[in-house]
Design a protein that fits this description.
Layout (H helix, E strand, L loop, with lengths): L6 H59 L6 H14 L1 H72 L1 H4 L7
Helix pairs in contact: 1-2, 1-3
Length: about 170
């Protein structure tokens, strides 16, 4: 039987399907990692805010327990401002982590679509190959029948007894 004319394309489609399936698994792993990171970043923010509140209380307590020197209140206010100015950095980390999850979900959705498309493309080609095989089989069967008829016809021309019944009867 002849080689399927699109066999190379079938091989390429299989390779593409395998590649997008690997990419889908990688996208799932990236999403899991991004989702794991959100609560970590939220905990960091909560821990920092709790630490800032505790540190402010501690520093106020120290200030109240000792005689106050000139400028100590200003120093405390500057320390508090500096600590609170870092809170938006922690909030941004949380927001970035959530944005990474959103992007990872979108990437995963796209990879699912690519896998589905690769499967559809391959299935179409495999269905075509099945149709082609059936046609090839019919063609080979037709050619075999034709060769057999030709052989019988040629034999009939060479052997006159074959025309009269095939057994030499007259």
């Amino acid at each position: 039987m002849a080689k399927y004319v699109l066999a190379d394309l079938v091989r390429v489609r299989n390779l593409r399907k395998d590649r997008v399936e690997r990419e889908l698994l990688q996208a799932k792993e990236r999403l899991a990692e991004a989702e794991r990171l959100v609560p970590v970043r939220e905990k960091e923010l909560a821990d920092y805010e709790k630490w800032v509140d505790g540190e402010i209380d501690r520093q106020y307590g120290e200030l109240l327990r000792k005689p106050v020197r000139k400028g100590a209140v200003d120093d405390l206010a500057a320390n508090i401002r500096a600590m609170r100015e870092r809170i938006p950095d922690y909030v941004k980390r949380v927001q970035d982590a959530k944005e990474d999850v959103r992007k990872a979900k979108e990437d995963l959705r796209k990879k699912h679509e690519e896998v589905e498309q690769a499967n559809r493309d391959l299935e179409k080609l495999l269905a075509h190959r099945e149709e082609w095989l059936v046609e090839q089989f019919k063609l080979e069967e037709f050619n075999s029948d034709k060769e057999l008829e030709e052989a019988v016809r040629q034999r009939g021309q060479e052997d006159p007894s074959a025309k009269k019944g095939g057994m030499g009867e007259e």
